[in-house]
Structure formats: structure tokens, C-alpha cells
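User: quick one - fold this with pyridoxal-5'-phosphate bound?
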Amino acid sequence: MNLSNGRPYLAIPGPSVMPDDVLRAMHRAAPNIYEGALVEMTQSIIPDLRRVARTAHHVAIYICNGHGTWEAALSNVIAPGDRVLVPSTGRFGHGWADMATGLGADVQLLDFGRSAPFDLTRIEQALRADPEHRIKAVLASHVDTSSGVLNDIKGLRAALDAAGHPALLMADCIASMGCDRFEMDAWGVDIAITASQKGLMTPPGLGFVFFNDRAAAVRATMARVSRYWDWVPRAAPEQPYQYFGGTAPTHHLYGLRAALDMIHAEGIENIWARHDVLARAIWAACEVWGQGGPLTLNVADPAHRSRAVTALRLGLPYGAQLRKWVEVNAGVTLGIGLGMSEPGDPDGKGFFRIAHMGHLNVHMVMGMLGAIQAAFVAQSIPHGAGAMDAAAAVIAAGSHA
Ligand SMILES: *Cc1c(COP(=O)(O)O)cnc(C)c1O
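Assistant: Sure. C-alpha cells for the protein plus pyridoxal-5'-phosphate:
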């Protein structure tokens, strides 16, 4: 007997669930990449991507994952020896910092741990302590996917302005875009990056770098930029191949086109609102489970939690047991703890993450929570009673009559 037979549910923070419309759009013969429908479709994708990022500025598309967009963005504005300030709230902040180090940047890290958001006062102090304006850019994770921390990017812009500092504001929105509210232009973000496989519901393999005219002006001062990562021809191509620095990622583009159609049909404000209700339902269940057992939400203050991913600590041996039980018995795959080692748990196996990004609705969230509820019972893991009711109450309050 295998209770997990049925539709599997990948609830890890990327890749996310692919909608059937996206999969269907990709299932076709290889197209002409030089002219015709594919080229026109690529052109149609550009303004629709801008709408998702809430920007009127430029976008360059890369055939890469999120790590590639880290490097792409840095390569256009950071030369070896340039200083970058990296406020970090988890593994992904450190990851972008490490990518900058690899490119020869002089990295100034401000580590805020892995369960608290940016301390904007400390960031402002660090900027004020740089009167010669050696810091060329601030690299900020909007959502750190390892910790589930949501950072205040608008507030970070205010801190830069209060310090009178001209550094570029660069935001990693790989987890957040299409899930948590993000407004590139209104918030004064100079460069925003994202990738296809999270809120954009398309398989991993496409990366996006949005940049404004301030960032373009910095790019223009660079002595040398890697030909492949250079955003200039990609954002303003004279030939179709220049969008991608080579062969177009044909089937990813069909998938992305379908995903953008879904996003615009629903409306980005409605998407953010849906993610908000579903995330709060998950948190409500987790809080109740935690009242009668060891489960804790990694980020205590809901205001600083992402609507895309939630990191949880269950401790050893339960964390790994629970993830395994729901995968084997319920067809639900939860995310592993990432960068969460602690004394007695060097691999962070006491942690796990629930992704709630992209193509998901109430029955998926309640099914996933129900699977966790069953795991608590099956594994005799101590937990509070009434979690499903708590989640249902949030959903009821957020639903239509
Ligand atoms: C997923 C993610 C990345 C890395 O993306 P990959 O596609 O795994 O390279 C970087 N930053 C954030 C915030 C992410 O969520």
C-alpha cells in the first residue's frame, strides 16, 4: 500500500508548483528562433515582466538560475575593488555577498542573524560612516528564503536617502516577486533581480535583472563588463539573439508567457492578497501546533515574515522525521532547513520550510497542513490541538461570502 499515490505537491521554496497552463504551453515542437511568432512573443514578455516588478524601466533576461542573476547584476555595476554593503538576514544574504567576493568586490557584511529583519538604523550608521561614498551598492534580500525573513526595502531606500548616500540599491526578489508586495520604482530600487521558478511559476532556467537609469549610468562608467552578462544588448537588442546572448530559451518562453497571462488575469494586487491569506492560515496552524510542542516559527513577528516561505524549527529528531513522513505517506515535499545549523544539529535537520509561493490555493494549503497534522499524530510528535481549525478561521475571514 502507498498512501502517497495521487498528485504530488512540491512545497519547497523553489522550484514551485507549475500550473498545467504553463506545462501545456511548453509542450510543442521547436520553433523558428530567428523570426516570427517566438520573436514577437519575446517582445510581448518585456512589458509584462515590468508590470510584475512594478517598474517602467529596463529588463534583461538571462538563461540562468537565481545565482546567475546575482552575478549578472553585479557584473554590470561592480568592478574588482569596488565596495558593496550587504545587510544579511540568512543564507541568501551571505550567498550574494559571496558572489560579490568572487567577483573581486570589497564586501562589507552587516549580519543581522537568521530570524530578525534589517536593522535600518545600523545600516544608516554604516552609510554615514562612509563620507567618501566608497560603498557603490547595497545588496539587499527582500525575502531571505532560508530564514523566511521579509525585509523593508522601502525603508532601506529611506535610510540611504537620510544618509545622503548615492549607493545603488539592489534588491534580491527571487523569492518574493509575485508573492510579497514589491514596488521597484515606488520604493526607489535601482536594480531588482528575480528568477522564473518561484512566484513566476515557470521551470528554473530564466533569470531577470531589472534596472533603472541610475543603474544604467553606473554601467556606462564601467571599464569592462563581461560580454555574456552585459545587460545593454539584452535590454535593447538590435537582433533577436541579443535578448539571450545566443539561442533563445524557447520552451521556457512559452511557459513564461502562459504564467504572465495568468498573473495579469488575476492581477498582482489580488495575487499578493491571496498569498497573504494563505500565509497567515499556515502561520495560524503553526502557532497552535507550537502551543503544545516544540514547533516554533523562525520569525516571531508576522510583520517580518514572508508571504512566500515560512521557516520552522521542530528540533531533532522531529524535523527530519516529519519531512520524511509527509513525503513518503502524503506526497507532500517540504523544504529542508537551509543554513540553520546550531549546537547539537550541525546540518540544521531540526528545521524545515514550507513554501507557499505561486500557484497555490486553499485546498493545497489545507491539504499540506493536514498532511503535517497527520505526521504529528503518526510520529507522536508533541503538538497543540486545533491547528486546522485555526487555519480554517483565517481562510474563512479572508474568503468571499
Ligand atoms: C532561490 C533564491 C536564490 C537562488 O536561486 P537559484 O535559482 O537556486 O540559484 C537566491 N536568492 C533568493 C532570495 C532565493 O529565494
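One thing worth noting: The chain has a mean pLDDT of 97.
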